């Protein structure tokens, strides 16, 4: 039987990764063929799936719970009835299975092999098909002057935290598999339903709003960029991303692929205040800063490259950098 005819290849196609040689291998490492058939029969309750497959209900229910624990399926709710559905896309498969508590190192290494060898081609395709990136940068809270700018709830990581109903923290899936830097790992803040999911699966621990805000401040100190879902409704997660391990930033930096939207703000340098210390250059992942005068070495911002994260502003010793509003409220999808 050829790879193209295996159930694992059909599962790869189901999550929009047709033609991948490595995604079927990842599925096969995490699910045997009976479990794979069960996933492909979803969605449904254990009773519905048992009838569809001609298997005992108790066995199907146990398999559903096991696959949920591994991260390949998700719970769905209709009233008090719990059903199960297969991961819908690469993002869910990636984020959920990498946090599988019992994931062997070879499974994580295969994920990184996919990110290195196959993900770039799929990413280029996705940027052509999707109207907007899935994620968006959020500027550092203290970098934006609230007296001069229109700051929306969706612009503020602090507001997302403070207005949440439940919070959890998980390890960064990208740094777990890549191991390319020594940045903190347990810094991905899960919000509301995503927090409940992480706690229920055992992939994250519940935290207070104060601890979540501390994680944001630590991430800013370490030079990590706040990233959230690209939508006006706040919630789900706040990732704190580096420029080397991240799923999106390396391709955004090297090729300009629009895999993550910038914030609604951008940095601006006051040439009269700039002391040419170079601190901002060291903090910017996106090569958005340049020297405009070789003699004075004054820094300027390349607007089209600036992601509006604010990491340069909060560490400028001369207070020469400000964050200005450059995109309207409509920039964020509703």
Task: Tell me about this structure.
The chain has 2 domains: about 5-130, Winged helix-like DNA-binding domain superfamily/Winged helix DNA-binding domain (Arc Repressor Mutant, subunit A, Orthogonal Bundle); about 135-330, no CATH class. The mean pLDDT is about 95. It has helices at about 5-15, 25-30, 35-40, 45-55, 55-70, 90-100, 105-115, 120-130, 155-160, 175-180, 195-200, 210-220, 250-255, 280-285, and strands at about 75-80, 80-85, 135-140, 165-170, 190, 205, 225-230, 235-240, 260, 265-270, 290, 300, 320-325. The protein has about 325 residues and is an alpha+beta fold. The strands form 4 sheets. The chain has a 7-stranded mixed sheet with strand order 6-4-5-8-7-3-9. A hairpin with a 2-residue loop joins strand 1 and strand 2 (about 80-85). The relative contact order is 0.11. The chain is built from 14 helices and 13 strands. Helices cover about 40% and strands about 15% of the residues. Helix 2 (about 25-30) packs antiparallel against helix 7.
């Amino acid at each position: 039987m050829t790879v193209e005819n295996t159930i694992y290849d059909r599962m790869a196609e189901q999550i929009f990764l047709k033609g991948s040689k490595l995604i079927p291998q990842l599925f096969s490492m995490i699910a045997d063929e009976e479990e794979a058939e069960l996933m492909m029969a979803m969605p449904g309750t254990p009773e519905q799936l048992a009838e569809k497959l001609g298997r005992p209900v108790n066995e199907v229910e146990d398999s559903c719970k096991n696959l949920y624990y591994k991260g390949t399926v998700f719970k769905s709710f209709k009233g008090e009835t719990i059903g199960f559905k297969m991961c819908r896309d690469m993002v869910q498969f990636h984020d959920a299975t990498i946090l599988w508590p019992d994931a062997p190192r070879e499974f994580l290494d295969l994920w990184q092999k996919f990110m290195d060898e196959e993900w770039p081609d799929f990413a280029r395709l996705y940027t052509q098909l999707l109207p907007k990136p899935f994620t968006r940068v959020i500027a550092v809270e203290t970098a934006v002057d609230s007296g001069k700018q229109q700051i929306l709830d969706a612009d503020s990581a602090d507001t997302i935290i403070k207005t949440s109903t439940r919070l959890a923290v998980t390890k960064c899936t990208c740094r777990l598999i890549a191991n390319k830097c020594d940045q903190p790992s347990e810094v991905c803040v899960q919000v509301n339903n995503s927090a409940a999911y992480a706690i229920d699966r055992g992939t994250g621990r519940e935290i207070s709003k104060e601890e979540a805000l501390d994680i944001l401040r630590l991430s800013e100190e370490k030079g990590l960029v706040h990233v959230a879902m690209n939508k006006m409704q706040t919630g789900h997660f706040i990732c704190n991303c580096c420029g080397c391990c991240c799923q999106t930033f390396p391709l955004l930096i090297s090729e300009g692929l629009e895999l993550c939207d910038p914030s609604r703000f951008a940095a601006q340098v006051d040439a009269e205040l700039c002391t040419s210390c170079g601190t901002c250059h060291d903090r910017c992942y996106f090569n958005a800063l340049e020297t405009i005068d070789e003699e004075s070495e004054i820094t300027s911002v390349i607007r089209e490259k600036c992601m509006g994260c604010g990491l340069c502003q909060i560490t400028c010793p001369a207070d020469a950098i400000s964050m200005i509003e450059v995109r309207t409220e409509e920039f964020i999808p509703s």
